[in-house]
Amino acid sequence: ASAPQYEHLIVSTPKPGVGFIQLNRPRALNALCTPLIIELNQALRQFQAEKSVGAIVLTGSSKAFAAGADIKEMKDLTFSRAYGDDFIESWSDLVTFLKKPLITAINGYALGGGCELAMMGDILYAGPKAVFGQPEIKLGIIPGAGGSQRLTKAIGKSRAMETILTGENISAKQAGEWGLVAKVFDTPDECVNGALATAEKIASYGQIAVKACKEVVNKSQELGIREGVEYERRVFHGLFGSQDQKIGMSAFAVKMKPEWKNE
Ligand code: CAA
Question: Which of 47, 177, 181, 243 is in Cβ range 3.0-4.6 Å of 126 for a Cys bridge?
């Protein structure tokens, strides 16, 4: 089957095992209109289903990762339509159904919904001019795609309160120091290439273990330490039922490179 054509995305598989999605709505700084979000969910769903893809990279342009939800689209939205149609709920599909690791490579503006989308990544990488922020307060609203929850978990309550209540931006350097992102790169290209290289590395491992890693780390966001460690141990024990565990440990014992079966 030929790859679906997207209006607002560029989708490719540039390296073995790596799915790559670029937001491509340059004239609106990648503002996240509903058709873009629908396409993004389609592209992610396709990579999720594609056996040969082990990890996914999501990026924007060097000027903007995404400048937020589409303000022009939201301008005339009413409470009853927002509530009645569960406005923005479909965004959470991105995190709740995606089992493969998602790396977000952020250059330029990541504001409002753009910051929230960036934070849905399992790993965040930033370029030197990345700008994070939740400016919703300036529009008379609040973050609506998880910003108040994910930003607070990522950088702590006081910093998140300051960011969300003032609408002030967070620089790439600050985001690195606060641990909002895993790495800050020297150029936009290095940021995207770094994300692709990390995705390629992840995709080169046994995919059962990769999936389990993501699952247990995500549990730490929801469970207390005791339940979380118990959960981890159940999954850990389960991996001794996989072939990849036998393959990985036997290869180590004879100093060979493992040939994963993903079984
Ligand atoms: N929605 C719709 N259009 C947007 C947009 C957005 N979020 N952000 C930028 N654009 C459009 C602009 O309207 C402009 O279009 P026109 O050429 O047709 O006028 C085009 O993109 C270029 O933008 P600017 O001329 O403003 O570019 P700039 O370089 O001067 O400024 C900016 C860049 C600081 C990012 C500025 O565009 C800006 O402040 N954007 C809005 C940021 C924002 O408030 N985001 C939060 C949205 S609310 C939200 O996301 C809710 C939620 O939690 C889900």
Answer: 181
Alpha-carbon separation of residue 21 from 46, 158, 172 (angstroms): 11, 33, 22
Interval between CA 68 and ligand 1 midpoint (Å): 7
> So what's the ipTM on this one?
0.98
Distance 27 CA to ligand 1 centre (A): 10
- Find the 169 Cα to ligand 1 centroid distance in Å: 14
Ligand 1, closest atom to CA 64? 35
Model pLDDT for residues 12-26, shown as the tens digit of each residue: 999 999 999 999 999
CB 122 within 8 A of CB 101: yes
In whole angstroms, what is the distance from residue 262 CA to residue 206 CA? 5
Buried b (16+ CB within 10 A) or exposed e, 33-64: beebbebbbebbeebeeeeebbbbbbbbbeeb
Rounded CA separation 121/54 (Å): 15
Q: Which two tokens stand for residue 135?
A: 């400016």
* Residue 5 DSSP one-character state: P
Model confidence pTM above 0.90? yes
pLDDT in tens, 189-223: 999 999 999 999 999 999 999 999 999 999 999 99
Q: In the block, which residue shows the tokens 């929801």?
A: 222
Cα dist from 65 to 131, 142, 182, 230, 245, whole Å: 9, 20, 16, 38, 38
Nearest Cα residue to atom 20 of ligand 1: 28
